[in-house]
Amino acid sequence: PLVWMPYWSPPEKRDQERMEKGREGLRKRDLPFIERMLSKAGAGGFVCGAFSLADTALMPLAMVLEVDAMNLDEFPRVKDYLARLRGRPSYRAISPRTRVEDASHRK
Question: Which of 9, 55, 77, 106 would staple 38 via disulfide (CB 3.0–4.6 Å)?
Fold first, then answer.
């Protein structure tokens, strides 16, 4: 999505208008789709019930929304799902908030 690419550039080079356009696309198109998909998810709290490859496809989105701090109150299933996803060790290893030294278990 347009929202994330500018985040990897220096703040002075970020195109805020382009980023907002990306957020709007997420709010209107992507997040409602994911919300509906999660309404059909089985027990276990992940896309296919138990954590699976389907969930790993959403990890980049989880990272973008974590960095962006987008308000997800109108998408409660997405909000809860992302919290579960971010709680997994595999996500914490790649989280934008995790230092490389901590992710690699090096000191």
Answer: 77
Q: How far is CA 10 from the centre of its chain?
A: 21
Q: What is the pLDDT of residue 21?
A: 87
pTM to 2 decimal places:
0.79
Q: What is the CATH number of the domain that holds 34?
A: 1.20.1050
pLDDT in tens, 11-62: 788 788 888 888 898 999 999 999 999 999 878 899 999 999 999 999 988 8
Q: What is the extent of the structural domain holding 52?
A: 5-98
Integer Cα distance of 10 and 7 in angstroms: 8
Separation of CA 85 from chain center = 9
Task: Report if residue 44 sits inside a domain.
Answer: yes
Look at residue 83 in the predicted model and tell me its pLDDT.
94
**Counted domains in the chain:** 1
Q: Please indicate, yes or no, if residue 105 is contained in any of the structural domains.
A: no
